[in-house]
Protein backbone atom coordinates (compact mmCIF):
# COMPACT_ATOMS: atom_id res chain seq x y z
CA UNK A 1 0.00 0.00 0.00
CA UNK A 2 2.96 2.33 0.31
CA UNK A 3 2.32 3.49 -3.26
CA UNK A 4 -1.40 4.01 -2.65
CA UNK A 5 -3.05 7.29 -3.42
CA UNK A 6 -4.47 9.22 -0.49
CA UNK A 7 -7.52 11.30 -1.26
CA UNK A 8 -9.96 13.53 0.59
CA UNK A 9 -12.91 11.33 1.48
CA UNK A 10 -16.01 11.47 -0.68
CA UNK A 11 -19.49 10.98 0.74
CA UNK A 12 -19.30 7.33 -0.40
CA UNK A 13 -15.91 6.89 1.31
CA UNK A 14 -17.31 8.29 4.57
CA UNK A 15 -19.93 5.52 4.59
CA UNK A 16 -17.09 2.95 4.67
CA UNK A 17 -15.03 4.63 7.40
CA UNK A 18 -17.05 3.41 10.45
CA UNK A 19 -16.50 -0.24 9.48
CA UNK A 20 -12.75 0.33 9.14
CA UNK A 21 -12.67 2.00 12.57
CA UNK A 22 -14.67 -0.82 14.16
CA UNK A 23 -12.39 -3.46 12.64
CA UNK A 24 -9.25 -1.62 13.80
CA UNK A 25 -10.69 -1.24 17.30
CA UNK A 26 -10.83 -5.04 17.56
CA UNK A 27 -7.06 -4.91 18.14
CA UNK A 28 -7.76 -3.16 21.43
CA UNK A 29 -10.18 -5.91 22.46
CA UNK A 30 -7.26 -8.34 22.37
CA UNK A 31 -5.57 -6.07 24.94
CA UNK A 32 -8.63 -6.19 27.20
CA UNK A 33 -10.04 -2.82 26.17
CA UNK A 34 -13.69 -3.73 25.75
CA UNK A 35 -15.38 -0.38 26.24
CA UNK A 36 -14.11 1.96 23.54
CA UNK A 37 -16.66 4.44 22.27
CA UNK A 38 -18.50 3.22 19.17
CA UNK A 39 -17.15 4.17 15.75
CA UNK A 40 -18.20 7.63 14.62
CA UNK A 41 -20.87 7.76 11.95
CA UNK A 42 -20.32 9.00 8.41
CA UNK A 43 -22.35 12.09 9.32
CA UNK A 44 -20.11 12.81 12.32
CA UNK A 45 -16.96 12.32 10.24
CA UNK A 46 -18.31 14.65 7.54
CA UNK A 47 -18.04 17.52 10.07
CA UNK A 48 -14.26 17.11 10.34
CA UNK A 49 -11.91 19.64 8.79
CA UNK A 50 -10.57 16.84 6.53
CA UNK A 51 -10.93 13.10 6.29
CA UNK A 52 -8.24 11.41 4.23
CA UNK A 53 -8.69 7.88 2.94
CA UNK A 54 -6.66 5.30 1.09
CA UNK A 55 -7.86 2.27 -0.84
CA UNK A 56 -10.99 1.22 -2.70
CA UNK A 57 -12.77 0.03 -0.67
CA UNK A 58 -11.37 2.22 2.08
CA UNK A 59 -8.50 0.42 3.82
CA UNK A 60 -7.49 3.26 6.14
CA UNK A 61 -8.37 6.80 7.06
CA UNK A 62 -7.14 9.85 8.97
CA UNK A 63 -9.46 12.42 10.53
CA UNK A 64 -7.93 15.88 10.73
CA UNK A 65 -9.15 18.87 12.72
CA UNK A 66 -7.87 22.40 13.25
CA UNK A 67 -6.86 22.79 16.92
CA UNK A 68 -5.04 25.80 18.38
CA UNK A 69 -4.08 26.93 14.86
CA UNK A 70 -2.42 23.60 14.08
CA UNK A 71 -3.65 20.45 12.40
CA UNK A 72 -4.67 17.73 14.85
CA UNK A 73 -4.77 14.06 13.88
CA UNK A 74 -7.97 13.13 15.68
CA UNK A 75 -8.10 9.55 14.44
CA UNK A 76 -6.05 7.23 12.29
CA UNK A 77 -7.33 3.74 11.63
CA UNK A 78 -6.26 1.02 9.25
CA UNK A 79 -8.30 -2.09 8.60
CA UNK A 80 -6.43 -5.11 10.02
CA UNK A 81 -6.35 -6.73 6.57
CA UNK A 82 -4.31 -3.75 5.30
CA UNK A 83 -1.93 -3.39 8.24
CA UNK A 84 1.84 -3.71 7.95
CA UNK A 85 1.76 -2.61 4.31
CA UNK A 86 2.57 1.08 4.74
CA UNK A 87 -1.05 2.26 4.78
CA UNK A 88 -0.71 4.16 8.04
CA UNK A 89 2.61 5.70 6.99
CA UNK A 90 1.09 6.92 3.73
CA UNK A 91 -1.77 8.51 5.67
CA UNK A 92 0.68 10.18 8.06
CA UNK A 93 2.69 11.64 5.20
CA UNK A 94 -0.50 12.97 3.61
CA UNK A 95 -1.54 14.45 6.96
CA UNK A 96 1.72 16.40 7.15
CA UNK A 97 1.29 17.60 3.55
CA UNK A 98 -2.27 18.79 4.21
CA UNK A 99 -1.03 20.60 7.33
CA UNK A 100 1.78 22.25 5.35
CA UNK A 101 -0.65 23.33 2.63
CA UNK A 102 -2.94 24.82 5.28
CA UNK A 103 -0.09 26.84 6.77
CA UNK A 104 0.08 24.91 10.04
CA UNK A 105 3.42 24.71 11.88
CA UNK A 106 2.80 21.29 13.43
CA UNK A 107 0.51 18.29 13.61
CA UNK A 108 -0.64 17.12 17.05
CA UNK A 109 -2.32 13.96 18.29
CA UNK A 110 -3.37 12.23 21.51
CA UNK A 111 -2.61 8.55 21.92
CA UNK A 112 -1.68 5.71 24.24
CA UNK A 113 1.95 5.91 25.37
CA UNK A 114 2.60 2.19 25.65
CA UNK A 115 0.49 0.54 22.95
CA UNK A 116 2.98 -0.56 20.26
CA UNK A 117 0.90 0.70 17.34
CA UNK A 118 0.26 4.04 19.09
CA UNK A 119 2.97 6.36 20.55
CA UNK A 120 5.95 4.12 19.67
CA UNK A 121 4.73 3.86 16.08
CA UNK A 122 4.11 7.61 15.77
CA UNK A 123 7.58 8.27 17.25
CA UNK A 124 9.12 6.22 14.44
CA UNK A 125 7.39 8.62 12.04
CA UNK A 126 8.67 11.85 13.58
CA UNK A 127 6.16 12.61 16.34
CA UNK A 128 7.48 13.43 19.82
CA UNK A 129 5.73 13.67 23.17
CA UNK A 130 4.93 17.26 24.08
CA UNK A 131 3.67 19.24 27.05
CA UNK A 132 3.09 22.26 24.78
CA UNK A 133 -0.70 22.04 24.75
CA UNK A 134 -2.77 25.00 23.69
CA UNK A 135 -6.18 25.52 25.29
CA UNK A 136 -8.10 23.52 22.67
CA UNK A 137 -5.71 20.55 22.76
CA UNK A 138 -5.74 20.60 26.57
CA UNK A 139 -9.56 20.53 26.45
CA UNK A 140 -9.45 17.52 24.09
CA UNK A 141 -7.07 15.71 26.46
CA UNK A 142 -9.37 16.46 29.40
CA UNK A 143 -12.36 15.20 27.41
CA UNK A 144 -10.52 11.91 26.81
CA UNK A 145 -10.10 11.57 30.58
CA UNK A 146 -13.84 12.21 31.01
CA UNK A 147 -14.54 9.47 28.46
CA UNK A 148 -12.43 7.10 30.54
CA UNK A 149 -9.77 6.45 27.92
CA UNK A 150 -6.95 6.94 30.45
CA UNK A 151 -8.06 3.92 32.49
CA UNK A 152 -6.63 1.71 29.72
CA UNK A 153 -3.16 3.23 29.86
CA UNK A 154 -1.23 6.47 29.96
CA UNK A 155 -2.30 8.96 27.31
CA UNK A 156 0.17 11.41 25.80
CA UNK A 157 0.11 14.38 23.48
CA UNK A 158 2.51 14.18 20.56
CA UNK A 159 3.51 16.71 17.93
CA UNK A 160 5.44 16.73 14.69
CA UNK A 161 6.74 19.86 12.98
CA UNK A 162 5.46 20.43 9.47
TrEMBL record:
This is Acetyltransferase (GNAT) domain-containing protein. Transmembrane segments: none annotated. It comes from the Bacteria. The lineage of its organism: Bacteria, Bacillati, Actinomycetota, Actinomycetes, Geodermatophilales. Coiled coil: none annotated. Keywords: Acyltransferase, Transferase. Pfam families: Acetyltransf_1. CDD domains: NAT_SF (cd04301). GO terms for molecular function: acyltransferase activity, transferring groups other than amino-acyl groups. The keyword Secreted does not apply. Residues 4-152 form the N-acetyltransferase domain.
Amino acid sequence: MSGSVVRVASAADLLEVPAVEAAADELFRARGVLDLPPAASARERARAWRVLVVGRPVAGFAVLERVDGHVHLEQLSVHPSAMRRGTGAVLLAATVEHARAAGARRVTLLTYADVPWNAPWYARHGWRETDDLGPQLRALAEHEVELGLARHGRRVAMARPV
